[in-house]
Amino acid sequence: MGFWELKMMLRTGNNSKKRAFTLLELLLVIVIIAVLMGLAIPRISKSIANTSFKSFINKACLFLDYASTRSTLKNIILEVRFDLKQKNILLRKQQEKEEIISQLQIPQDISIDIGKETVIFYPDGTSEEFKIIISDNQGRKVEISSSGFDGKIKRDE
């Protein structure tokens, strides 16, 4: 055996112990992870519910804007019908009740309060006056409305 080999053997040790985690250390890490998950999951689920509500509000506004724009571009009278029993919003020509142009599904945890079932959009860019209150099971409410005269869709949170 040479000098360098002997020096390396003394430095590292010939019978060095293998280090491993003890059962107590592993359990401690698992407990810490469980506590962190317990704190994070309610916040994450609340954030997801909030995002879902805001997403539906945006989709509803875009759906109504689309109805207004399509009515003007195609020079036809369109009707947006709120079918609250089936939980969807339908866009169709006023005269042709069978042909559905577009549809928006209402999520189960969202409720809509509207004075009438339909809103009419006219080719001149106007619409019937309407006020829609959209709420969820956590008490959040948003109002979507239009004065009808200018056809602009307004959103108040």
Protein model, in words:
It is elongated, with a radius of gyration of 31 Å. It contains two helices and eight strands. Strand 6 and strand 7 form a beta hairpin. The protein has helices spanning 3-12, 23-74; strands spanning 78-83, 88-93, 100-105, 110-114, 118-121, 130-136, 141-146, 154-156. With 157 residues, it is an alpha+beta fold.
Mean pLDDT: 85
Order of helices and strands: HHEEEEEEEE
State the distance separating the first and last CA atoms: 83 Å
The largest β sheet comes out as: 4 strands, antiparallel
Cα Rg? 31 Å
Number of helices: 2
Q: What's the arrangement of secondary structure elements?
A:
Layout: H1 3-12, H2 23-74, E1 78-83, E2 88-93, E3 100-105, E4 110-114, E5 118-121, E6 130-136, E7 141-146, E8 154-156
Antiparallel strand pairs: 1-2, 1-5, 2-3, 4-6, 6-7, 7-8
Please summarize what this structure is.
The protein contains 2 helices and 8 strands.
Keywords, separated by commas or semicolons:
157 residues, alpha+beta, four-stranded antiparallel sheet, 2 helices, 8 strands, 27% strand
